[in-house]
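Worked example 2:
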Amino acid sequence: MDLSLLRTCLAVYRAGSLTKAARQLGISQPAVTGQLRALEAKLEQPLFLRMPDGTVPTDAAHELVRETADALDSLEEALSRRLRPEKLSDRTVRLAGPAEIITSRVLPAVTDLVLDGLRLQISLGLTEELLAGLADGAHDTVIATSRPRHHALTSTPLMDDWARRCWRRSRSSPTPMPCRSCAGTG
């Protein structure tokens, strides 16, 4: 059963009109009519009487709405919280990366968000296995030390290769300089 048909039926039931339901659903009135006809055909019974000033639900519509409305509303609410969280605590962010980067850079940067209610699930590991987990849906975001090779993953560089070089502070200069032994390596 296509749940959008039930959602449309519920919208028409509550709005009392095909046009108002279409406006609420963000679709055209002919689309609402088509979805209602498809649901009525599937159920093999009429759900609404079409009147000049709106619709009147049949006994079948009353029964269907009574049996499905709470479940549809709960599903809609759960999906809405996942897609558009109102509060930081409405969703857990599954973050993964190398231990040294997560502990030294990321966690200090998100401390205020955590104090405001953001829930984090942290996974530590090697880049390749964490990126495989990202591709499989185990993580929402991965901080990686190399670009992902998987075609379905996108990346945004956070720092350039210079950040991974070995640096030292010279006694004669307060400006850090690359170590001679590491110069030219990345």
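The chain has two domains: 3-83, 94-155. The chain is about 45% helix and 15% strand.
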